[in-house]
# Entry
Amino acid sequence: MIDYSEAYINKIIVHKIGNKAHEEGIVVSDELVFPNEALREVLMEYFLKPFIKTTETYQFVHNVDIGYNVINDLAKFVFADQNDFKLRSIDILKHLYDQSNHPHIKSGDLFVVLFGDVLVNDELVDTIGIFKSEDRLPYLDVVPDKENLEIVKQLGISIKKLDKGCLIFNTDIENGARVLSVDSNSYDAEYWLTYFLNVDYIRDSNFETRSYLEMCRSFSEEVIKEKESKKEQIDFLNQSIAYFDENEMLLNNDFTQTVIEDDVLKTEFANYKTEYENDNGIVFSETFDISPVVLKKQKQAIKNFIKLDTGIQIKLDFRNPDASREFLEKGYDEEKQMAYYKVYFGEELD
# Structure
């Protein structure tokens, strides 16, 4: 559990960073920023609010030794001696600039922040935040001009959207500190997470829940929908969601037996799961705790409706997973030479 309610900004500095491929360079600040109380409140919301609902936790990694991970090493120095904060922030800036060599990477402002008293698993820890603002949005300002007021267009940073950011917690730093990350402008998925941070998912209940449901969604799309129909695809997804809703823990064999009726499809699911693990470098636990937070997010990502070429949509409810089996039939009309769905119901509801 992570709680930011007691957190505060200890140190903050801002630099400018360009695109290395375009040779735009960097601009280094000489001094720290000392915001007043009102600005601190705005900055705290801008920096931390995007992470409140973040479920995926990462850890710094390196294919040789964790000591070679640049950002983990720099964070380790800052946590050990906060007097080095400014110099280390410049090292962070230079490291990010070295990774900014793709022509699509945007220039922007780089904020490096040291927070105090972030609660992580019942322990108050120092936390480093690295935030990159890439997009400047237009806004109107009214300014005095002699005896009149002028309306002028300005460009600025929207505090409602954090383009890129990460939080590095002072926990288990010798083995790779824990990290949360946000990337709203994911034009280059590897730029931030892989090349700059070099992190990998922590295999916790959040990771297992998200990955297993994503695997189920892929199976429904690539196997069930191709062999059967959209109805059977959504029926499988409905049954899968129902299982996650009704259980606190997933047992792989129990999930297969509960959700899939057809024996042939059970075998195909087992084979697909093995291929999915190999292709994605994942080994699912035979049993793991189900994360309600991740489940809620995954429900929102799953499409539970059948869209027809006649302009009609049939929406199925995750809360009633057996409805499509009991009250929805698919057939074919020879006279019209068209497929059809037959829906049974007792009464129309408002």
User: Anything to note?
Assistant: The chain has ten helices and 17 strands. The longest strand covers residues 108-120.
